[in-house]
Design brief:
Blueprint: H1 2-20, H2 29-34, E1 38-40, E2 47-55, E3 58-65, E4 84-90, E5 99-106, E6 113-115, E7 121-125, E8 128-137, E9 142-149, E10 157-158, E11 172-176, E12 179-184, E13 200-203, E14 216-217, E15 220-221, E16 239-246, E17 249-255, E18 262-267, E19 274-281, E20 292-296, E21 299-306, E22 318-324
Parallel strand pairs: 15-19
Antiparallel strand pairs: 1-22, 2-3, 3-4, 4-5, 6-8, 7-8, 8-9, 9-10, 11-12, 12-13, 13-14, 16-17, 17-18, 18-19, 20-21, 21-22
The chain binds beta-L-arabinofuranose.
């Protein structure tokens, strides 16, 4: 009986933390008010890497779908062993109900894929929706594939082979004036490479199924005009490319990897170079951080994930959203988070 009461009390405390997203360290009511409102979008399942887009006036989110595969952590990311994609949609980001449209693509239907359906993105062109996704092929090499649908809810039909010449992870497709640019990179940023290096950008062909040119390096410069080096791990690109445009400027944002920041750099055209500007979000609970930025109904939003609801398990992540605001000079206001200490006991 005593054990039941203790269990109920602990469950109630956990619920309060999850619902109100209370920080790990105490803070005054005033400090809490200054923080932007955050919302867990889909508490009933683990999803991550949200790519948000507005199609037909509605907001769609294409996330990775985390699950307990039984593979535990290692330095190669094998625990991130995702097997399908869902799409979620909503029409009121701050309070609206989130609809899960179910599975839109399953690993068993993709002939070239061996494992690990990682962070996807979707683009629209001439009545067709294209889902771009990274996965390991039968030789264990990350490639980028495409699947096609005639509505944003899918289902998406995969091409039988990955995009010829594609490599690495985390595609993000940005459209401007009828041209589509794919940003990507992270593990395998060069063909055959197992470490992370700079991001890449490449224009897609008119049929959206091929690379129209050789991928170029995305160069991030410091304020002195010199490239940010890969050893500068608090500012360098690691993974999770995203591109958006605001007031005529191109904002390239990304994760710094082992320093767990979302940072951004701005430029004058989609190819860059981009000049480092600062941090969008400080570390969240969980190793990875991955996001998208989109304008909807006159407000800008940052979609991202953290591992707080799973108790800090890196590969069981939950989707979140918060408003993103700019300073008058176009710089992004930092969404400050404190990194929770995750003890070995609450990691499984
Ligand atoms: O979800 C698997 C991988 O973790 C993504 O591709 C990375 O960006 C990181 O979020």
């Amino acid at each position: 009986m005593k054990r039941n009461i203790l269990f109920l009390m602990l469950s109630a405390i956990t619920l309060v933390f999850v619902i109100f997203d209370i920080g790990c360290t105490s803070q005054s009511g005033e400090q809490r008010q200054q923080r932007p409102q955050k919302r867990y979008l889909f508490p009933s399942d683990y999803m991550a890497d949200p790519a948000a887009h507005v199609f037909n006036g509605r907001l769609y989110i294409y996330p990775s779908h985390d699950w307990r595969s039984g593979i535990t952590d290692n330095s190669k990311g094998d625990a991130f062993d995702m097997r399908d994609y869902h799409v979620l949609s909503l029409d009121d980001v701050e309070n609206g109900a989130v609809t899960d449209h179910g599975v839109i693509l399953d690993i068993k239907d993709i002939p070239w894929v061996k494992r690990q359906l990682w962070a996807p993105d979707v683009a629209y062109k001439d009545g067709v929706y294209y889902l771009y996704f990274p996965a390991r092929d039968k030789n264990n090499v990350f490639r980028i594939g495409v699947a096609i649908a005639n509505c944003p809810e899918g289902p998406f039909v995969p091409q039988p082979e990955p995009i010829p010449g594609s490599y690495s992870i985390d595609p993000c497709v940005f459209e401007e004036d009828g041209e589509y640019y794919m940003y990507f990179g992270g593990i395998g940023s060069s063909p055959g490479d197992s470490s992370s290096s700079s991001a890449r950008v490449v224009k897609l062909s008119q049929d959206m199924l091929h690379l129209a040119e050789e991928p170029r390096e995305v160069i991030i410069l410091n304020q002195n005009g010199r490239p940010v080096s890969q050893s500068d791990n608090s500012r360098r690109f690691f993974e999770a490319s995203w591109m958006h445009k605001y007031n005529g400027k191109y904002y390239f944002s990304y994760s710094t990897g082992d320093t767990h920041r979302l940072c951004y750099a701005t430029g004058d055209n989609p190819y860059g170079p981009f000049t480092y500007q600062g941090i969008i979000m400080t570390p969240v609970v969980g190793w990875t951080t991955h996001h998208s930025i989109v304008e909807y109904n006159g407000k800008w939003y940052l979609f991202h994930h953290d591992s707080r609801p799973s108790g800090g398990i890196d590969w069981l992540r939950s989707l979140k959203v918060t408003e993103l605001t700019y300073n008058p000079d176009g710089t992004i206001k930092n969404n400050k988070r404190r990194r929770c200490v995750v003890t070995p006991e609450n990691k499984s």
